Amino acid sequence: MDAVLIGLSLGATAGVSPGPLLVLVVMQTLRHGWRGGTATAVAPMLSDALVIVLVVLALDRLPHWTLSAIGLLGGVYLAVSAGLQWRKGAAVDHVVSDAASARTEGWRALLQGALVNLLSPHPWITWAAVLGPLFVREWHSGPAGAYSLVAAFYLALIGAKVVVALLLARFRHRFTPRAYSATMRSATLVLGILGLVLTGIYAAELVGTATT
């Protein structure tokens, strides 16, 4: 029970915390409706398997700068993605209404969300600093507790983001064209700022590691 409560608490907090994936959930929901938003929200199910394996089994054997390198790649990717989104613009005609197109965009949103999450430092740091040690501790007590911790964490993490997507999708058609455009521009700007900040932070860490 303790493992479940810990997992739910950590997952719910992470699910609503500002970050690249949450911004992407907002953007995809506004552009493609609930399908795009929920597809992006469940992206950790696709990306975090690799994160978990590397952190639990191998990260302690890798060089110290590994997390910084991953964070740097993530920051660059977010900044470039934001730049491309900004050039594409925030026109209302990007909203998808055709069902087949919506399903296609849902798959694209899932893959983009998985890539953003994989290159984001957040899941790596969360697993390396918090969930990894907790998982190992629970595993020593019994596999059931370890699996319950992970299941509860991702249930709350994805559930929180799905709720955000569904609520936003419910009201997105009430947006005026100007409000829609301003919201998309703002989300793109936030994504770009996050990318630049992460790039600067992790580039500085890599330089510091190289000079020591």
Q: Name the assembly state.
A: single chain
Instruction: Give the terminus-to-terminus CA distance.
Output: 44 Å
Which regions are unreliable across 5 or more consecutive residues at pLDDT < 50? Answer: 90-100
Overall mean pLDDT: 78
Strand percentage? under 5%
How do the SSEs run, as a string of H and E? Answer: HHHHHHHH
What would you call the shape?
flat
Total number of distinct structural domains: 1
User: How many strands in all?
Assistant: 0
Task: Determine the fraction of residues in helical runs and give it as a percent range.
Answer: over 70%
Secondary-structure-based class equals mainly alpha
Largest pleated sheet: none
- Alpha-carbon Rg, integer: 18 Å
Compute the number of helices: 8
Describe this structure in words.
The structure is a single chain. This protein is mainly alpha-helical and 212 residues long. 85% of the residues lie in helices and 0% in strands. It has helices at 2-16, 20-41, 44-58, 66-88, 99-119, 121-141, 143-171, 177-211. The protein has one domain. Residues 90-100 have low confidence and may be disordered. The protein contains eight helices and no strands.
What layout of secondary structure does this protein have?
Layout: H1 2-16, H2 20-41, H3 44-58, H4 66-88, H5 99-119, H6 121-141, H7 143-171, H8 177-211
Helix pairs in contact: 1-7, 2-5, 2-7, 2-8, 3-5, 3-6, 4-5, 4-8, 6-7
Q: What's a concise summary of this model?
A:
The chain is built from eight helices and no strands.
Key terms for this structure?
212 residues; flat; mainly alpha
